[in-house]
Design a protein that fits this description.
The chain has 149 residues and is an all-alpha fold. It has helices at residues 14-43, 45-51, 53-82, 84-100, 112-137.
Length: 149
């Protein structure tokens, strides 16, 4: 290797390097500005709603139709269940289940989970009621001053 050789070849003059850096920075600034603009558009919910108003109206109409169908089916089922024939069928089914499995009609005692849950709820209710009673009967820390007339 000769003297002055760094293996990178010859570099352009500093003025050209500076111009190249400025040109690339200007390109990056343009890209950053565009990304910022797109971010603002994406996060502007009013713009998104107005751009997709037709699809949103269709979706709302679909939800309304589905809700109406669900309500209609519930009303229809309720009316069917109130008819005398349907009630008689349910009583007949219940009686046949009682005759087939009398041990399932009523449990002798509640399950351990139910007993534990009942104990927890009862304890919490007692604490809440005690706290409310204490607050209701407590004297104020700072008694109010009465005006003597």
């Amino acid at each position: 290797m000769g003297q002055g050789s760094n293996g990178l070849g010859s570099l352009p003059p500093p003025d050209e390097l500076e111009l190249e850096v400025e040109r690339r920075l200007a390109g990056l600034a343009t890209i950053v500005d565009e990304l910022d603009h797109r971010r603002h558009e994406l996060l502007d919910w009013r713009l998104q709603v107005s751009a997709r108003a037709r699809q949103l109206r269709k979706a709302a109409a679909l939800v309304a139709v589905l809700a109406a169908v669900a309500v209609g089916l519930a009303v229809r089922r309720s009316r069917r269940r109130r008819r005398l024939v349907a009630r008689a069928e349910r009583v007949t089914d219940a009686l046949s289940r009682i005759l087939e499995h009398p041990e399932r009609v009523a449990r002798a005692e509640p399950s351990a989970t139910r007993r534990a849950a009942t104990g927890i709820v009862t304890g919490l209710a007692g604490l809440v009621l005690r706290n409310l009673a204490d607050r209701a009967t407590a004297r104020p820390k700072y008694p109010t001053l009465r005006r003597v007339q």
